[in-house]
Each structure stands twice: as C-alpha cells, then as structure tokens.
Write a structure and sequence with these properties.
mainly alpha; 5 helices
C-alpha cells in the first residue's frame, strides 16, 4: 500500500498489483474488490464482465472472515478506513506493516 498510499478506495489495477505481489491467486480478486473498490467501481467491473456479485453481502462475508466478527456499526457502504481501525490485508497477513515494505508495481 505504500506505493498507493492509504485511501478510501483503490483501483482494480492497484488491487491486482497488491494481490499478485503477495502471491494471492487472481481467482480471489473479486473478494478483494469487495473490500477495496468503491461500490460504483465494483458494480461497473462486474457489469463489464457479465457477472452479478452482491457487493454488500461479499463485503460482510469478507470482513466477518478476516476480523472474526463484524466491526461495530458495520456499514458496507463505508470505506474500509471508516471501520474503526480495521485493516483487512494487514489482518490477513498478520500486521498492517507487511505491505509497506514491498514495491507492488
């Protein structure tokens, strides 16, 4: 994330670069998109590829799986930055600093 900075939402390409850099399969990209794309970008991407994915349901599932429970006052329409210190990628990899040491280009 160092290359892209902390921001409310990332582009699809930024997310793919991060996933590939840390070795996650492309098949998981949709789940990462549910956390880091804006709702509009998520919908536009899935419309373009002809898939119907439920942004809110996927987001809720991902947050619950990563955090062990939903953050207080969870609102799927909010950016991940608004979830009271929740950092999905940092939580998955054991610390928010993990991605800051890597160039994800």
């Amino acid at each position: 994330m160092q290359q892209f900075g902390r921001k409310a939402y990332y582009t699809r390409i930024e997310i793919l670069r991060i996933l590939r850099r840390i070795g996650f399969p492309d098949a998981w990209s949709c789940w990462a998109y549910s956390l880091y794309l804006s709702p509009a970008d998520f919908a536009a991407h899935h419309a373009a590829i002809g898939e119907a994915c439920d942004y809110s349901a996927m987001r809720e599932t991902m947050v619950d799986a990563v955090a062990g429970s939903l953050p207080d006052a969870f609102d799927a329409s909010q950016s991940w930055l608004d979830w009271n210190g929740f950092d999905p990628i940092g939580d998955i990899l054991g610390g928010a600093d993990v991605l800051t040491d890597h160039d994800v280009s």
